[in-house]
Amino acid sequence: MDRAGSLRGDKTKAFASATIILFMVMAGATTLRAQSSASISGVVKDAFDAAIPSADVSLMTSQQAVVKDAKTDAEGRFKFDGVPAGAYVVVVTRPDFTTQRRAVRVTSGQNVSLDILLQTRSISEQVTVTAEAGLVAEARSVAQPVNVIEEEKILQRAPEVVAQVVDEEPGVNLQRTAPSLSAVFVRGLTGRNVAVYLDGVRYTTSAQRGGVGTFFSLIEPSSLSVVEILRGPNSSQYGSDVLGGVVNFLSHAPRYGSDENEWHGSTNVFYSSVAHSFGGNQLVTYGTSRFGFLLNANARRVNRLSPGEGLDFHSALNRFLGIPSDVIGTSRLPDTGFTQYGGLLRTNFNLDDKTQLLFSYARNQQDGGKRYDQLLGGERNLHPEDTG
Question: How far apart are CA 27 and CA 239, in angstroms?
């Protein structure tokens, strides 16, 4: 009996020791978890130092994944707790103010405080995430030249093809050899020497042709929130073939709701008299505290182009035969119209503070695009059936 009692006593002591060790391990893990996360807080004000309530504040990664979302309170304050160490972009939006994007880098256990100033659609602060691979930084603090094109300019400049966003941008040029074919010149180079990224994923390859391609025009302008163009020798960090520069297209991301389910949306339409082109898009987002959904549907019809004074001096009729291009009975250029339509679907789901499940599906289709530059508008080395 004494021996049995001794064994029971040893088991009790062993169990107590194991319980204490387990408790210490759990406490240590809890402490380590608390130390490994950080917090980001701030206050949003206008130019008169007045607090801005009900502004949407999103914490995003460099790949445009929304980590957290919140609204400013009556004093213009917001706070994100449990933020893993890393580099982020804080995006602050309100309909009557310009969108502000602030780069922030946090380390384990750090508490970062931000003062964000919103302007009334006149002055904007820009952020780039492509100057260094995987780095978020303020555009004004980046040594190499970077172009940042915001959403408002994208919609204004690119009603037909996405390459039109570079109009009026320094250091880059639009290449559009046919209405449905376009590309971007960076430092005098294009094609395989200019890397194109879509939401951080490379869209081009070093094996593609050196000129324009239809694939470039299949990127939908209305689905983009910002376009960033890196110029200069530092573009080589994206690959030995990237001699010209890097064009990074960043799509809209779903928005979470702060305290309740939220719906947001926008509608855009356009018309151009040059080609009697028209179209538009409908963007809808829905968000809860842990789930975000985004849908963008778009369509456009670009009709035949009208050259200056009705004459096309690139026409094969004029170049080789000396006959005005309008002799065929119309002042508009044949084989220059096309139809394009598609959509973007994205969902984000926060499993916990450190894990996200992302789904993204994009599809755009172009019908009727032809190589007018190699048909009647060029050397006539193609037949219409070769480009159908």
Answer: 46
CA nearest neighbour of 67 among 80, 77, 54, 53: 80
In this prediction, residue 25 carries a pLDDT of 41
Least confident of 129-133, 156-160, 204-208: 129-133
The full DSSP string for 178-197 is ETTEEEEEETTB-GGGEEEE
Residue among 357, 353, 385, 352 nearest 371 (CA): 385
What is the C-alpha R_g of the chain?
A: 28
Coil, helix or strand at residue 229: strand
pTM of the predicted model over 0.70:
no
Range of the domain at 111: 38-125
Strand partners, 49: none
Predicted pLDDT at 2: 47
Whether 221 and 158 have beta carbons less than 8 Å apart is answered as yes
pLDDT of residue 1 exceeding 50, the answer is no
> Which token pair is 311?
């004459």
Q: Which of 96, 125, 154 is the last residue of a domain?
A: 125
**pLDDT at residue 387 in the model:** 53
- Find the CATH number of the domain harbouring 61: 2.60.40.1120
Rounded-to-integer distance, Cα 212 and Cα 215, Å: 9
The DSSP secondary-structure symbol of 119 reads: -
**Which contacts qualify for 119-123: CB closer than 8 Å, 24 or more apart?**
119/46, 119/47, 120/46, 120/47, 120/96, 121/97, 122/98, 123/98
Q: What angle do CA 375, 378, 382 make, to 5 degrees?
A: 35
| Helix count and strand count (H, E) for the chain | 4, 21
- 194 falls within a domain: no
d(CA 229, CA 52): 32
Does 241 reside within a domain?
A: no
Over residues 337-369, the pLDDT tens digits come to 999 999 999 998 888 777 888 899 999 999 988
The number of domains in the chain is: 2
Percent pLDDT > 90 in the chain is 21
Other beta carbons less than 10 A from residue 192's beta carbon: 20
